[in-house]
Amino acid sequence: MEQVILIRFSEIHLKGKNKGYFLKLLYTNIKTALKEFNKVITPIQNRVVVSDYSLDDEQQIIDEIKKVFGVYSVSVASVLPSSVDDITNFCKNLEVSGSFKVDCNRADKTFPIKSNDMAKMLGGVILDNNPNAYVDVHKPETVVYIDIRENGKTYIFDRIIYTYGGMPLGEYRDGLLLLSGGIDSPVAGFQMAKRGLRQDILHFDSYPYTSPQAREKVISIAKQIKTYIGCKYMYIVSMSKLQEEFHLHCKEEYAITLLRRAMIKVATILCEKHNYKTIITGESLGQVASQTVESITVTNSMAGNIPILRPLISFNKDEIIKVAQEIDTYETSILPYEDCCTVFLPQNPVIKPKIAIAEHEETRIPLADLIAQAIENIIVMEL
Questions:
Q1: How far apart are CA 89 and CA 83, in angstroms?
Q2: What pLDDT, on a 0 to 100 scale, did the predictor assign at position 287?
Q3: Domain termination site, one of 162, 185, 207
């Protein structure tokens, strides 16, 4: 009996006339995720089937498929011809103990028996051949799924593995993720990727005020989320000189506000240069002084026409940590290396900054020249 991996999707069904475009993206992304394996990938009506793979690779293939956004669920299934006799004979040989039910999906409307009638008939077959089994349609221990597809084949399985869902990553890297060494920003990138936004990465460091290990930590995080967000390039920009100037010439309580404004300005310039359409940050409202409504407003004013997306804006820390643990970035994020925002940290940072004051403070230093210098010395890594 042939064994395959059956891949399902859900949200793509809602895309109407654009459904074909998103299905093509999903199929391409599945092929990319499984490129290291010997297998055959076949799209069928509202499903994708992976076949002819080594059983030794099965769990690893499933693990890779689970990372592909747009996939809703996965099952390992036995496949057989869609005939009443073939399906009935298969069910006669199933070993079932305890409570069970049969869930039949008749996608092929030419199949001669309707779904409910087929489920009842096969339930009887299983009962006749398994004396320790009994039917419980509400809370069964085992569900036997019968998926009768339009391609003349039926897929039978007893387990559904649910995945992240969402929308497939787009063809182009349209987002620029501001990635720090903390817990939040990798999760922000993950959340936006789940909505189909492919991203590259921008990281700010403050060497020599921050250590080489701090930079390596962020590079490690970038490699950990690469599969999820589809990134290719990581930009590293030093903010050391800017921070020195803010520290020496500007109001101490505005240091973080001015730093974040400079970061957004750098990100905006890179977006315009490389055709990124949006900036993504890991900010959560009220989590720290730089994430109040007033601080966010003052920061936004540096972005011009580039939108800033903050997918974690309403998340609490526990929710963020839970996702970070799921995507395996949490343990790296909590390694005890400083990041850019901990350098020259003011004792009492302003929590309700004003744009006029921030702009006035910026006139105390050659801001445009310092930003141009930072961009000129950018490090570009291919991940």
A1: 10
A2: 82
A3: 162
